[in-house]
Write a structure and sequence with these properties.
single chain; 98 residues; alpha+beta; 1 helix; 4 strands; 17% strand; globular
Length: 98
């Protein structure tokens, strides 16, 4: 959306607040407010300066647990390595190749 002419600020609002409202969840999701669910990401760089900075994830918080953005290892409240996935990290066949 930002490449279509929106400012980085407006693109982030569409992806969060307005997106939650569009699917009928604006009272529970989309912004940090008292009484709302508060899963969030912490970025290393400011996405308002460049929207591509939105991929600089340092931490992810889900259900009150803080995870490292690169490894998904839990950082807080219990430091531990990422759980072993049942799936491989890469598909056996690359997309478009048979």
């Amino acid at each position: 959306m930002q490449s279509g002419g929106m400012t980085p600020h407006d693109a982030l609002r569409v992806a969060t607040i307005l997106g939650a409202e569009a699917v009928g969840l604006g009272k529970d999701l989309g912004s940090l407010e008292t009484g709302k669910l508060a899963d969030l990401v912490v970025l290393d760089k400011n996405p308002l300066e460049n929207i591509r900075n939105s991929n600089s994830v340092k931490y992810v918080m889900q259900n009150g647990r803080l995870y490292d953005g690169n490894t998904l290892a839990e950082v807080w409240p219990n430091a531990r390595e990422r759980w072993k996935s049942l799936w491989k990290d890469e598909p056996a066949t690359k997309a478009g190749i048979r």
